[in-house]
Each structure stands twice: as C-alpha cells, then as structure tokens.
Design brief:
This protein is an alpha+beta fold and 428 residues long. Helices cover 50% and strands 15% of the residues. Strands 1, 2, 3, 4, 5, 6, 7, 8, 9, 10 and 11 form an eleven-stranded mixed sheet that branches. Helix 2 (42-80) packs parallel to helix 11 (346-382), helix 9 (291-331) runs parallel beside helix 13 and helix 9 packs parallel to helix 14 (410-417). Residues 1-20 have low confidence and may be disordered.
Length: 428
C-alpha cells in the first residue's frame, strides 16, 4: 500500500483570467452606431431636429438680415441725412404791425451765397404756406376745394436740393423765380387728387381762384418728404401772392443745403456767416446727426430682440432632442442590456447616445444654417439689396447645433450608461 504524504493546505486561486481582450469602441464604429440609430427612425429624427433647425436658422437669418439692413440703412442714411444741412430763420418782429408778416431774415441772394460754399451741391429757401384757409381746386368755380394738400414755396436751389424725381414735365428753373411765374410742381398724390393725368395740354389748377400752370409731376424726393403730399410754387410767386413767411415753426423760412459726403459739418459752420455776416445769430444752423449712433442703437435693439427669439428656439430644440433621446433609451433598454452582456462598458453606452444626440444637433445646425443663408439671400434679392453675411455668425452656427445636441444628450446618455444589464435583459 502506498502511502501518500501529508496533505497540505489547498492552493490559493489567483485572479480570474480574462476570456479575451477588453472591449473597444473605435471612432468609426461609434459613428456607424450613431448613424444607424438616427436612421432607424427617420421621422422621429426629423421632428427632433426641427427645433434646432428653427433655432439655428433664426440665428443666422437674424444676424444676416440685421447686417444687410444695417448696410442699406447706413447707405441711405449717410447719403441723405448726413449730406443735409438746414438753416432756420428767426425774423425780427420789432416795428412790425400786428397781424403783418415780418420780413424774412434771409437775404434775397441766399441761394447764390450758400452755393458758393465749398462742399455745397445745391441750396435754397423754402417755407410752408398756411393752406388751411386756401381753396385748392382743379376748376375756378366757387365751392370747397381739395382738402389735405400742403402748399410749399421754394427757390430753384431748394428744389434742386430736394431733388424730386420727375414722372412728367420739368422742374422749377431760375426764370420762373425771376419772373414770379404762376406755375406749380405737383406731387403724384396731389396730381391724382386734382385730376391731373397729363401735361401736354398745359393743365392748370386754381389756388384762391387764381390759375397756376402745372409744369411737372414728381413721385419721389430725396429730402423734405412732407412735399410728397403737396405742391411747390416759386418762392417769388409766393411772396407776391401770400406775403412773407410766418413766424411759427411750421411757417418760418428755411434754407436747405445738400452737401457732398463728409462736408456737412464744415458747411454748417460757415452757412450762418455766409448768409448774414451782419447778424449770424438770427439764423439757426442744424447739422446732420451722427448716423452711426442711431443706426447702432436700432441695430442692437433689433438684434437683441430676434436673438432672444432664436435662443428660445434653441432651448425648444434642446428639450426636443433630450426628450427623444430619453425615449430612445427607454425603448432600447433590452438592446443596452445585450450590449453590456457582450462586453460593452458604461462609457461605450454613454458615448453612443451622446454621439447620436450630437449628430442630430449637427444635422439640425447644418440645415438651419442653409435655411438662414437662403432666407437672407431671398430677402436681399427681393428688395434689390446687397446681402451681408458675417463669417463669425455663419460658420460657427453648425457647431452651435452640435453643442446643443451634446448638452441635450448628457442626461439620457448617463441614464443609459447606468442601466443594469440583468434588469435590461429581463425587460425591466
């Protein structure tokens, strides 16, 4: 019988060896899984991206339209308002009988004096004639005339500074001013209300029963927009028939000067002395305001308002992505359990759902950027504007969509990663 030696203590078992290499999820596999998850339910994915599309599209469109409109506002504002200088008269009323109009403080050759200043392209006198008690009609017979039309007096230099766009006929010339001719320029609105449709027969209108030959009809003006609802007669004719300008603010004489771009401030500093070297204090010169301050305030207000709306859309889009991703986590619980049982780690599960939500946000950002750019181009083309798209606002827009998708998918991804594989496999 053979004997055996003493039985020693049982040997200790070492750590269990792995059955295979650790599981890995490469970038290519991760992108493929995310793409499959997005394409698995295309309808849901489209609806999920809708909020991001609207938010990013609104973001790009708002900034693009604001920049485009600012450029147009700046061009129109700079070329019109920034090239207009006005001078207001303060007539001396001492010794003037009650009820009589005082003489104008402007000299008779104001147009020539202002026109000799370097930088002035056109300048002249104008004033509003009180028309409440005037009868303006298309026929000489008595009775009520056409109401609501304004009557202006202007010298040829003032008409040139206003720069009306003629639809028919000619404008006031120096001869009409020198001869005090009874002629009139009608706005298109005034011509329509007075029944003036053509000028080849030299039609006339009647003001206080006196005829005025219509020599032209205009439909646009660069300055003095109030004249779009009225008519203009020569200043000399108005002095003969209606007397001197009044003293009220809306009846006082004014000089309007159109200047070259950049010359308005210099011209404003010289006008009062050039017109009245003996008493420049009788005239008040108004230089154009700084266009950039007003434009910047308007632009910032509009941008802030619409960016707030775009931010709301982005929040709605983020909530939609988070909700859909969370629903996908709940629906795919068995799949998560199967992946975990096959060796997928928690970080793999979290990365998968984060990539899906980020992909949805990126696609929404790309589509929204395209729609925003197309909106800016369409609006600019329809209004004959030059589209302005800032690279700093357009290029990062898809990345904003990606960030929205990434943030929206954080909670669902964490919840998916914490799913217990056994519970998931049992369908719980």
């Amino acid at each position: 019988m053979t004997t055996t030696g003493p039985v020693g203590p049982p040997s200790r078992l070492g750590p269990p060896s792995r059955l295979g290499p650790p599981s890995r999820l490469g970038p290519r596999d991760l992108a493929a899984e995310a793409l499959a998850g997005v394409l698995q339910r295309p309808g849901r994915s489209v609806l999920t991206m809708l909020g991001t599309v609207l938010g990013i599209g609104a973001f790009v469109a708002v900034l693009g339209l604001t920049a485009t409109a600012s450029g147009q506002i700046g061009a129109g504002f700079d070329l019109t308002r920034a090239t207009t200088v006005t001078v207001t008269d303060h007539p001396v009323t001492d010794g003037v009988p009650p009820g009589a109009n005082p003489p104008s403080g402007f000299p008779a050759d104001s147009d020539a004096r202002a026109g000799r200043i370097d930088g002035v392209t056109a300048a002249g006198l104008w004033w509003r004639i009180p028309s409440d008690d005037l009868r303006i009609s298309a026929a000489p017979e008595t009775g009520p005339g056409v109401q609501g039309l304004s009557l202006f007096a202007a010298t040829p230099g003032a008409v040139a500074a206003v720069h009306p766009t003629l639809a028919a006929g000619v404008t006031l010339d120096p001869y009409a001013q020198r001869a005090a001719l009874p002629v009139v320029l009608l706005s298109r609105t005034a011509a329509a209300r007075l029944g003036v449709t053509r000028l080849d027969a030299q039609p006339a209108i009647f003001i206080q029963g006196l005829p005025y030959t219509v020599i032209g009809v205009y439909d646009q003006v660069e300055r003095l927009p109030d004249t779009m609802l009225g008519m203009i007669v020569p200043g000399s004719t108005a002095l003969e028939r209606f007397g001197n300008p009044g003293t009220a603010d809306d009846e006082a004489a004014h000089l309007i000067a159109a200047t070259r771009v950049g010359a308005a401030d210099v011209v404003a500093g010289q006008l009062a002395v050039a017109l009245r070297p003996d008493a420049p204090d009788l005239l008040t010169v108004t230089a154009p305001p700084d266009p950039h301050g007003l434009r910047d305030r308007v632009t910032s207000d509009l941008t802030g308002l619409f960016l707030a709306l775009a931010a709301i859309c982005l929040v709605v889009g983020a909530v939609g992505i988070a909700n859909t991703t969370l629903v996908a986590v709940l629906e795919r619980t068995p799949e998560i359990g199967l992946r975990r049982s096959l060796g997928a780690r928690t970080r793999h599960i979290a990365a998968q759902f984060l990539t899906e939500s980020t992909a949805l946000g990126t696609l929404g950002g790309l589509i929204g950027t395209c729609l925003g750019v197309l909106t800016v181009l369409a609006v600019a083309a329809s209004r004959d504007w030059t589209a302005v798209l800032q690279p700093w606002a357009t290029l990062p827009a898809p990345l904003i969509g990606s960030a929205v998708g990434l943030l929206a998918g954080l909670y669902p991804a964490v919840r998916a990663a914490r799913t217990d594989p056994l519970t998931a496999l049992r369908g719980g």
